[in-house]
Amino acid sequence: MNCKVSVIVPSKDCTFLRHLLVSLRDQTLKPNEVVLVVKDCNQRYIESLCREHSLPCLIIEQRKGYFTHALNIGKKEAKGDILVFTDDDAIPPRRWLERWTRYHELYKTVAGISSRDFYLDLNSLRIFSTPDDLPHIKLYRWLIRPLLERPYPLLKKYKLGVYITWNYNIAHGPYIPSHTCYSLPFRGVNISFKSEYVYDVWFPEHPLLKRAPGNEQYFGLQLVLRGYDTMYTPNNPVLHIVWESLSRTRDRAGLKNEIEVMRSLIRGLLGKAQ
Prior knowledge:
Layout (H helix, E strand, L loop, with lengths): L4 E8 L4 H9 L7 E7 L3 H10 L4 E5 L5 H11 L4 E4 L4 E2 L4 H11 L3 E5 L2 E5 L4 E3 L6 H9 L1 H4 L13 E3 L5 E3 L8 E2 L8 E4 H4 L16 H11 L3 E4 L5 E4 L2 H4 L4 H22 L1
Parallel strand pairs: 1-2, 1-4, 2-3, 6-13, 7-14
Antiparallel strand pairs: 4-12, 5-14, 6-12, 7-8, 9-10, 11-13
Helix pairs in contact: 8-10
């Protein structure tokens, strides 16, 4: 598959960005461009990192808005046939982009494909699983969730992966994180799309959405409602550096409000589709 690959990375303060750039430098398939949407960063420092690692970086300073605004800015500027989104605190393995291109060639009619992450402690270099791998979480997804949190009728096909429930919540089915299945995008740290399908699809922007939990599912839901498929595979993971934002949220009330905003936006999408 002879295609161009764009890697889109939002970054606020750029603390861990150098680790990501090193991993992109070492890819077996080089990115055609790395679109960095940066906020509160030393731009000269970022430029020097891109030159040092011989990466074709497009650096865009984000002057207003929040996380999903950065995603939309990066998507708007990206020129690749495959758009790969990741976080600035991710460390992909060497064949990450090579695998994404192969998956998109294998699943020609699938608009978006996502994969998983593993946590990395930089101090000890210990790699460990996310909560999705805990036995009681897996048991709940196999035995309880199918009874209590049924998929919205338009997403029955997605019941084994990430789906939207009758109550407009985001749920993870029993195949997450270990099996390939139809699924809404799993986590924004490791998602990819064919640009031809998403040229007019956007992440949600709202004045109350700072972290925007569920933004990747909202993005994928738009594709599903247009008749396209999205899927999940466990076979192209990235490492995700562990730091405070991954383990706990200080502003729990604010996060709860954001979840309610996202539910409302999802309800609106599904209401239009009926």
